[in-house]
Design brief:
The chain has four helices and seven strands. It has about 150 residues and is of the alpha+beta class. The protein has a five-stranded mixed barrel.
């Protein structure tokens, strides 16, 4: 009986370890329930400048300095920059190609040239590439309260 109990506890503990490896949470703990594909976000936004949302998509790039932002593919070769509420948390730098779920606020914003150059520097772009950034960028962006990274 003791062996059966021990094996049951060992199995439960190992299952918990494997389950934890399936996803990682960053920021506020969120669920995947109700997430829309990133490709649908612009349509859902319509003419709004901001709205609460939960979105699922694939990571295209991550800040190489400390994971303080990421870009998620939105379709047609476009991406959406995701930053983290109050700079309160970061994501791992090695999640390019992974699926994420982000919950927070989607916004249509204009990013100034100085910020775009800073992001390009964080992404490891060359000085020549950074110098080519001369116009502000109007784009769909996202401020996340919480992020799930799927393994």
């Amino acid at each position: 009986m003791k062996h059966l109990l021990f094996l049951s506890l060992l199995l439960a503990a190992s299952t918990g370890v494997f389950a934890q490896n399936e996803v990682s949470f960053h920021g506020k703990k969120i669920t995947e329930k109700g997430a829309i594909p990133a490709i649908q976000l612009a349509t859902k936004m319509a003419d709004k400048t901001e709205m609460p949302a939960k979105v699922e998509g694939t990571v295209e790039s991550v800040c190489k300095v400390k994971g303080c932002w990421m870009k998620v593919k939105t379709g047609d070769g476009q991406t959406m920059r995701v930053t983290f509420k109050d700079y309160g948390f970061f994501v791992p730098k090695d999640i390019v190609g992974k699926t994420v779920v982000v919950e927070g606020t989607a916004e249509t914003t204009t990013t100034p040239v100085a910020d775009l150059r800073h992001y390009a520097e964080d992404a490891g772009k060359s000085k020549e590439e950074i110098a080519k950034i001369t116009e502000p960028e109007k784009a769909l962006t996202f401020v996340a309260d919480g992020v799930i990274v799927k393994k």
